[in-house]
Amino acid sequence: MFTGSMVALLTPLDATGEVDYVGLQKLVDHHIDAGTDAIIAVGTTGESATLTVDEHIKVVLKTLEYVDGRVPVIAGTGANATHEAITITKLFSGTGVAACLSVTPYYNKPTQEGLYQHYKAIAEATDIPQILYNVPGRTAVDLLPETVARLAKIENIIGIKDATADLSRVKKTRELCGEDFIQLSGDDATAVDFVAEGGHGVISVTANIAAADMATMFKLALSGQIDAAQEINQRLMPLHNNLFVEANPIPVKWAAHQLGLIENGDLRLPLTVLSESQQPIVKQALLDAGVL
């Protein structure tokens, strides 16, 4: 089972805009040393939308190589065309990825039946465990618990990343899908509460910046020490909130550069470096959280 603090790993770029694989290896080692429980490669925070397919595959494979079996690696494989999501997913067959994280189709706004058929087709095309990813704020479509329950009956659909921040869904999903269906928060600010309601962990943006704190926090939360976890969580709250002052991963890449975790905060267009007006806000968040 996937539990604890799992980082939605950013993808470092060099000064020419190419993927910085030396920097990627340093990030992987940093997270393993800090106690991160799993690494998600090429999700939203990893700039999946602007990497080429070849880069996408290479970043995941290089992450697997650098991790070398020390923690699970989950590959981002979502697309808004079902055939494309299937193609990307199948490219990871036999590579050692522990699971695939597949976002709901964005922009084309399928119905609940369309979502069901989309995920069913992906799952039937592979034996790799599949984790659903519901983030309505980005995709303009909401994967409802009743649809998740239908999908949970498919053997290799094992869990969901829920970024709705609706804590009432944890209990409802557990009732519909059973205790073994993995529920992971995709909202850092409410993730400890998510675990308190019965969730299993978080796929985190904040963990890019405060890996050790996030790892400790979720060890406490999962062992029932919610009050102790919340003490850390309140200290990290400025990061949870202000790493989204502009679209993710703009602020988190700027913050990672400030901490010396990556060589620069550059992104691929249409995303641009954190604006000067927002930089003091993110810097203050780093100070308030005690990581700078």
Could you describe the 3D structure shown?
The protein has 292 residues and is of the alpha/beta class. The chain has one domain (4-234): Aldolase class I (TIM Barrel). Helix content is 43%, strand content 13%. It is built from 12 helices and 8 strands. An 8-stranded parallel barrel has the order 1-2-3-4-5-6-7-8, surrounded by 4 helices. Helix 3 (82-90) links the parallel strand 3 and strand 4. Helix 1 crosses helix 2, helix 3 (82-90) packs parallel to helix 4 and helix 9 (211-222) runs antiparallel to helix 10. The longest helix is centred in the C-terminal third of the chain and has 17 residues, at 226-242. The model has no long low-confidence stretch (mean pLDDT 97).
CATH A-level architecture? Alpha-Beta Barrel
Along the chain, the helix and strand elements come as: EHEHEHEHEHHEHEHEHHHH
Rg, Cα atoms, Å: 18 Å
For this structure, what is the CATH class? Alpha Beta
Distance between the termini: 33 Å
Low-confidence stretches: none
Q: Helical proportion?
A: 40-55%
Quaternary class: single chain
Strand content: 5-15%
List keywords for this structure.
Schiff_base-form_aldolases_CS; TIM Barrel; alpha/beta; cytoplasm; 8-stranded parallel β-barrel
How would you sum up this structure in a few lines?
With 292 residues, the protein is an alpha/beta fold. The chain has helices at 21-34, 53-67, 82-90, 112-124, 136-139, 145-152, 168-177, 191-196, 211-222, 226-242, 250-258, 279-288, and strands at 4-8, 38-41, 73-76, 99-103, 130-134, 157-162, 182-185, 201-204. It has a single domain (4-234), classed as TIM Barrel.
